[in-house]
């Protein structure tokens, strides 16, 4: 973006003017945890609640019709942005729920009301994940293994926290499901999706992509990625909290048994049995997150308007600056690849002798917001031999000046705690 373009873009985000503790605007480097929202997304919630709110799919009054139309238009808009089909997009409350839905449905016994096109998992089968996974794409598969007797296997990470195609022989004829992240929320490492999909296809495994850290940072096309399932999260994509999605090849939707059951997902109910909707509705039990869907759709339109390629270029350029600066700080340990070709602009780091919590607090006192902790990826931190880290993540609204502030604040943190040899 040119300086003027970036200034205009930043104007769309009211939160960027909120003063921090020292009175300066906050340099927000925590978009990997949750993104900030442009005014149009905030407005879309107000407009929906002020002009269209009603329960959906109960079309006997005008507001019900309006809300239903908005809800289904939103499904179309979000699916379109992600290169998917609305018939394959199931709303969930977040990406974690989408992964639970999938892990539960794929590990259900065959005795369901639906055609089970997926042979039940059992002893001898394997579910393969990776060392890089967020707990959301790890624990649900552990539970699926417990339920079925299948074995959990994983692809190890390289020393710098990447997946290496040399290690893909772990994916073998016993592998029934391969679930992996698109971009690590810790190391920023980009997964070799095409290699993984090719390997999974060669052994007939179902592929599941966790795209929480990729969809807001550049072009994303579910169809081109050629996976069977993906999950996405609105709140990481400038949209509201409280909504995520499971994206599926549409023909797979009706092969999955339902996860949550109750109202709205049934076509008929007797005292001792029920039949379920086909398509996404069969998974959307209870009252739907309508305003959230509307807000997410607005966020997708906004991202499209700004331009995914331009967002990627901007974040890549800032990533280069930040990476170069981090690598120059004596003693700083970067947890992840050291070239931008192998990573997104998500940087977890450790300062030896200084607890990440103290790093976060010192940066906060300088109005620089980063995340500290294990970032819901304890096994990956174990791989690096640390309990936790600080993480700075770049988004479309960050500036070079903010990168300088971040780097200066890290150096100042080291100085405050007595240099690098504490
Ligand atoms: N996977 C990854 C890689 C993530 O970064 C996150 C969010 N931290 C999740 C899954 C979970 O997403 P949600 O908050 O929508 O449940």
UniProtKB/TrEMBL annotation:
This is Cysteine desulfurase. Residues 28-406 form the Aminotransferase class V domain. It comes from the Bacteria. CDD domains: SufS_like. The keyword Transferase applies. Transmembrane segments: none annotated. Catalyzes the removal of elemental sulfur and selenium atoms from L-cysteine, L-cystine, L-selenocysteine, and L-selenocystine to produce L-alanine. It comes from Boudabousia liubingyangii. Pfam families: Aminotran_5. The keyword Hydrolase does not apply. One of its GO terms (biological process) is cysteine metabolic process.
């Amino acid at each position: 973006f040119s300086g003027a373009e970036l200034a205009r873009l930043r104007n769309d985000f009211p939160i960027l003017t909120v003063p921090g503790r020292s009175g300066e605007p906050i340099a927000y480097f925590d978009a990997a945890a949750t993104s900030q929202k442009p005014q149009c997304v905030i407005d879309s919630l107000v407009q929906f609640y002020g002009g269209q709110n009603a329960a959906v799919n109960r079309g006997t009054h005008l507001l019900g019709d309006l809300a239903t139309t908005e809800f289904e238009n939103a499904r179309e808009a979000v699916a379109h942005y992600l290169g998917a089909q609305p018939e394959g997009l199931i709303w969930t409350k977040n990406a974690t729920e989408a992964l639970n839905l999938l892990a539960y449905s794929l590990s259900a016994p065959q005795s369901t009301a639906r055609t089970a096109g997926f042979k039940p998992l059992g002893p001898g089968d394997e579910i393969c994940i990776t060392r890089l996974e967020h707990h959301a794409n790890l624990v649900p598969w552990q539970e699926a293994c417990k339920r079925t007797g299948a074995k959990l296997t994983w692809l190890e990470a390289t020393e710098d926290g990447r997946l290496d195609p040399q290690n893909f022989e772990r994916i073998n004829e016993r592998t029934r499901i391969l679930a992996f992240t698109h971009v690590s929320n810790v190391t920023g490492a980009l997964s070799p999706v095409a290699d993984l999909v090719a390997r999974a296809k060669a052994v007939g495994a179902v592929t599941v992509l966790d795209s929480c850290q990729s969809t807001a940072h550049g072009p994303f096309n579910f169809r081109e990625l050629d996976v069977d399932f993906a999950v996405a999260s609105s709140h990481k994509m400038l949209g509201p909290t409280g909504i995520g999605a499971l994206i599926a090849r549409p023909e797979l939707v009706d092969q999955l048994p339902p996860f949550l059951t109750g109202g709205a997902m049934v076509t008929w109910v007797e005292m001792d049995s029920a039949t379920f909707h086909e398509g996404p509705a069969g998974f959307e039990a209870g009252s739907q997150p309508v305003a959230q869907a509307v807000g997410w759709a607005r966020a997708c339109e906004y991202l499209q308007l700004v331009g995914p390629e331009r967002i990627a270029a901007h974040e890549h350029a800032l990533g280069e600056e930040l990476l170069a600066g981090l690598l120059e700080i004596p003693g700083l340990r970067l947890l992840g690849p050291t070239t931008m070709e192998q990573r997104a602009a998500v940087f977890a780091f450790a300062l030896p002798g200084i607890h990440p919590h103290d790093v976060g607090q010192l940066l906060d006192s300088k109005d620089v917001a980063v995340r500290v902790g294990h970032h819901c990826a304890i096994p990956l931190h174990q791989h690096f031999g640390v309990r936790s880290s600080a993480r700075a993540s770049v988004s479309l609204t960050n500036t070079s000046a903010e990168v300088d502030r971040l780097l200066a604040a890290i150096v100042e943190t080291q100085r405050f705690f007595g240099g690098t040899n504490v």
